[in-house]
Design brief:
This protein is an alpha/beta fold and 317 residues long. It has a domain of 141 residues: Response regulator (Rossmann fold), CATH 3.40.50. Helix content is 48%, strand content 18%. It is built from eleven helices and twelve strands. The strands form three sheets. It has a six-stranded parallel sheet with strand order 2-1-3-4-5-11, sandwiched between helices. α5 packs parallel to α6 and α8 packs across α9. The longest helix has 25 residues.
Length: 317
């Protein structure tokens, strides 16, 4: 009787261990029958900013024994809706979602939510269907700091031209809010031209050229992404103007940081892309463990000028 009881206890213990191992595997740790799989839906891998997040996500997932499936929307919102539907069909455990644009951005979140799949949104957050947690730069505060830099280097006087990103997206709205708040305190700085260039360098070059032709008295260009700031710098060089035009960007892309180091553009705000990638994996796994996570996780960005650009090129935050 004693032997049978001992065998029964041992069998129960083994079943408990097996159950716990399976649970650990489900939540991102090695072992068990099922390895956690995260779907990473990226807006456009042609952009260094998104590539940095992707690289960080993959590294953090590998360190935690988690699989990652990547889908690149190449800037097309309709393509991204289909890609996330594929993630749902493949039954990924959680989705890290960087929306490709403002149009239909909430559709994938609702579809995933209906399928009981948690969603971590990064950089952009659909206002009608917010992610379970949103990770991004505090772009309002960062753009205000950049605006205050412009105020200092211009003596609070001059004409400003703005190259917008995709109108309606979270970063475009936030950067407009922050930069505008800084300029409101300096009425000597006036925005005399503003147009979208959709985060694209070639388009920014063309738009900036047209702006300079219509308004040759421009003193400052704010490209709301580094690519657009670099496009504006090309346009200023092509115009061969005798005016000193200050050019500032946003993101801290490698090309943008090199542009600041080399004096092509004057300043940028460096986002913590590596940190955001790690955080998105950690947050997704926390959601799978049914832990409470903040609805918003906003990160600081850093002002980069020629004085400290090499530091950020050596080690990107």
């Amino acid at each position: 009787m004693w032997v049978l009881r001992r065998r029964h206890v041992a069998a129960s213990f083994l079943l408990l261990v097996a159950s716990l191992a399976g649970a650990c595997s489900k939540h991102g740790e090695s072992g068990g029958d099922k390895k956690v799989t995260l779907g990473l839906a990226v807006a456009n891998l042609q952009a260094d900013f998104f590539n940095q997040i992707k690289t960080s996500v993959e590294a953090e997932a590998a360190a935690k024994g988690v699989a990652v499936v990547v889908a690149d929307a190449k800037g097309d919102a309709t393509t991204q809706v289909n890609q996330i539907q594929d993630f749902i069909t493949r039954q990924v455990d959680a989705i890290i979602y960087i929306p490709a644009g403002a149009t239909a951005a909430g559709v994938p979140v609702k579809a995933a939510r209906d399928a009981k799949i948690p969603v971590v949104t990064v950089d952009r957050n659909p206002p009608d269907q917010a992610g379970d947690s949103f990770i991004a730069t505090d772009s309002v505060a960062a753009a205000k700091a950049l605006g205050e830099y412009v105020v200092r280097v211009t003596g609070a006087k001059g004409n400003v031209a703005i190259l917008q990103g995709q109108v309606g997206t979270t970063p475009e709205i936030a950067r407009d809010t922050g930069f505008s708040s800084a300029l409101r305190e300096s009425p000597g700085l006036r925005v005399i031209a503003q147009q979208s260039a959709d985060w694209d360098q070639d388009k920014a070059f063309s738009v900036a050229q047209n702006m300079l032709q219509a308004n040759p008295q421009i003193d400052v260009f704010f490209g709301r992404a580094d690519a657009m700031a670099l496009g504006a710098a090309q346009a200023v060089r092509a115009a061969a103007t005798n005016r000193t035009v200050k050019i500032v960007g946003f993101d801290g892309d490698v090309a943008g940081l090199k542009g600041v180091r080399d004096g092509v553009i004057d300043a940028t705000m460096c986002q913590q892309t590596q940190k955001m990638g790690r955080m998105s994996v950690e947050t997704a796994l926390a959601l799978l463990r049914k832990e409470s996570v903040p609805k918003e996780q906003l990160q600081e960005a850093f002002l980069v000028t020629k004085d400290n650009a090499a530091q950020y090129l050596e080690k990107h935050p």
